[in-house]
Amino acid sequence: MIYIALHSSDNKNIDLGQIAEKQEIPKHFLSKILQMLVKNGLLRSMKGPTGGFSLSRPADELTLIEVIDAIDGLDVFTQCGIGFKKCDDNHPCPIHNDYKPVRNKIRELFENKTLLELTEDVERGESFVNLTSK
Length: 134
Known about the structure:
By secondary structure, the chain is mainly alpha-helical. 46% of the residues lie in helices and 6% in strands. A hairpin with a 5-residue loop joins β1 and β2 (52-55). The mean pLDDT is 91.
């Protein structure tokens, strides 16, 4: 999503092959991920010679939580920190009371962090992951 946000525009789509090559991701695997993002309304997919993928909305309107939800779901924000099936406020596991506020803080970060903010970090060189094709 960051790569697409950096390289696509209203007039320019990013080809699956380009993303796969630049990000060193197997095409078949990447195709499945991108289709999930299309199905969940985060990306647009266009066919044809100028086809490819682009963001469905401006990057400042797309949050990380939406991407996580589209690919993996949000269960990670309700599950037990050590994997117990029956762990909640009434029946806490040994780390429940410490883990729950951390998990909630991470969810809050993902709910508030936009794709635009991530791309700006990359463009400024502040991100340790360089997703540009320069």
